[in-house]
């Protein structure tokens, strides 16, 4: 019987998420669920799900976290109408299954290859994806009029993890997964009893994936990791036209203000056409 969570993923997430999860109302429309998460079981990058109440009253959840009793209560307090469940990339889908089961009327949104990946695992198979972004349909795929009123979306299909970025227009907030890291993951480890910076691998990775100064190493990771730089540049330029100040990343602390400047710095090589 499918549990909705793969065995390999279950070893990476907290054993009792309710004890270490930080729930925070970022704005009246946006609530974040921040948890400890160790990449490869060693690097403290943190994890974050984001719940957004649309102007229609419907709810959208991005990169959902464990559906604990507290998370369910928060969803209920926000009206309970979970209409959209979004896997932000090829990797951020661990808890898609439990959310889809709990809210069967929700539309599941993901990226090309992810439905097939999940169907190959007995523990994750069975989730229907209603909207799947691909390199060919990215400019034409529309979720719904209701969704488009509140969100713009850009699909970075040339990123190794196939990234979706969303602009919540009413709050001027970008929501993303692995495009930009803002380490250390201070909030995400704040209830864990663990230092978010301890460990040699965490120190090394945190020394690269931060947003201080020119972000040269994170720039390099994005630049050299891109599989199609012209296509990535086109996506960067579309996002450059967005009006946002806050960035909610999956890894590291929320950038409450000044996020647009950080994003422009990180992606400047793609705008300048570096070779």
Automatic annotation (TrEMBL):
SUPFAM superfamilies: Metallo-hydrolase/oxidoreductase. InterPro entries: DUF4336 (IPR025638), RibonucZ/Hydroxyglut_hydro (IPR036866). Pfam families: DUF4336. This is Metallo-beta-lactamase domain-containing protein.
């Amino acid at each position: 019987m499918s549990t909705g969570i793969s065995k390999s993923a279950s070893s990476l997430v907290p054993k009792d998420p309710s004890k270490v999860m930080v729930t925070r109302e970022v704005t009246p429309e946006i609530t974040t669920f921040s948890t400890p998460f160790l990449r490869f079981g060693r690097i403290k990058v943190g994890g974050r799900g984001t719940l957004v109440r649309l102007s229609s009253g419907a709810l959208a959840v991005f990169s959902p976290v464990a559906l604990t009793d507290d998370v369910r209560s928060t969803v209920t307090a926000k009206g309970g109408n979970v209409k959209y469940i979004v896997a932000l990339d090829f990797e951020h889908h661990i808890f898609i299954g439990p959310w889809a089961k709990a809210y069967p009327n929700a539309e599941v949104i993901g990226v090309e290859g992810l439905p097939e990946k999940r169907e190959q695992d007995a523990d994750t198979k069975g989730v229907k994806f209603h909207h799947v972004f691909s390199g060919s349909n990215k400019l034409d795929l529309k979720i719904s009029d209701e969704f488009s009123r509140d969100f713009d979306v850009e699909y970075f299909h040339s990123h190794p993890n196939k990234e979706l970025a969303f602009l919540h227009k009413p709050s001027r907030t970008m929501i993303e997964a692995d495009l930009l890291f803002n380490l250390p993951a201070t909030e995400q480890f704040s209830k864990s009893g663990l230092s978010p910076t301890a460990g040699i691998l965490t120190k090394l990775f945190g020394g690269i994936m931060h947003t201080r100064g020119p972000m040269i190493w994170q720039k390099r990771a994005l630049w050299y990791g891109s599989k199609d730089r012209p296509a990535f540049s086109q996506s960067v330029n579309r996002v450059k036209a967005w009006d946002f100040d806050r960035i909610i990343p999956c890894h590291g602390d929320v950038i409450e203000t000044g996020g647009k400047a950080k994003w422009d710095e990180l992606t400047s090589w793609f705008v300048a056409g570096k070779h």
